[in-house]
Task: inverse folding
């Protein structure tokens, strides 16, 4: 990848962006992020999406995951992101409020990249190709381990929508089993992509 192509979408060089992301998280999460980026690049090539956008979105998708709660709540309140998301915790904040920090601190303004980060944990009822790629890459990247992961990775070689379906269904099942809060957008994703509601 040419550096100048990458710089179309960020205020930093590829290496600068990489270290900014690395500095913002634990080593373990950074490995997950690099795995997500690599998987996103493969999926973008396979399904004909913009490879640089997928790569950058993969790299920055968890940028805000380790910020202190007080800071994230401040971002939500000051940017009027909807205080109804506050009880859901950082699992939901780091996408929705994360894009504010990604835009401000990493100089990324591309709406497709920001949108993919915004919905990466919950999906949405109207996902773009890049949205689906980041949603799926986050789920199947090489550091992820769950029972059917090899099967799901094989499925991702042929049918991205089938993986969106699988991921949404299994995420919901897990949240229910663990008696954890379900953000309404997750249900919208389920209705659209698992049930097939239009
Ligand atoms: Fe995330
Ligand atoms: Fe992630």
Result:
């Amino acid at each position: 990848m040419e550096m100048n192509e990458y710089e179309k979408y960020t205020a930093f060089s590829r290496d600068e962006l990489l270290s900014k992301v690395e500095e913002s998280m634990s080593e373990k999460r950074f490995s997950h992020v690099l795995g997500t980026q690599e998987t996103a690049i493969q999926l973008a090539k396979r399904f004909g999406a913009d490879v640089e956008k997928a790569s950058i979105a993969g790299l920055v998708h968890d940028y805000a995951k380790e910020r202190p709660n007080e800071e994230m709540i401040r971002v939500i309140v000051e940017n009027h992101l909807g205080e109804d998301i506050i009880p859901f915790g950082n699992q939901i904040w780091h996408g929705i409020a994360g894009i504010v920090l990604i835009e401000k601190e990493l100089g990324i303004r591309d709406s497709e990249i920001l949108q993919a980060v915004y919905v990466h944990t919950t999906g949405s009822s109207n996902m773009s190709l890049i949205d689906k790629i980041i949603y799926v890459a986050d789920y199947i990247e090489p550091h992820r381990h769950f029972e059917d992961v090899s099967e799901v990775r094989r499925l991702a070689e042929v049918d991205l929508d089938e993986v969106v379906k699988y991921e949404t269904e299994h995420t919901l099942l897990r949240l229910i089993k663990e008696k954890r809060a379900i953000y309404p957008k997750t249900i919208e994703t389920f209705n659209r992509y698992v049930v097939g509601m239009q």
Summary: The chain has twelve helices and no strands. The domain at 10-195 is CATH 1.10.3210.10 (Hypothetical protein af1432). Residues 61-62, 65, 94, 120-121 surround fe (ii) ion (ligand 1) (CB under 6 Å).
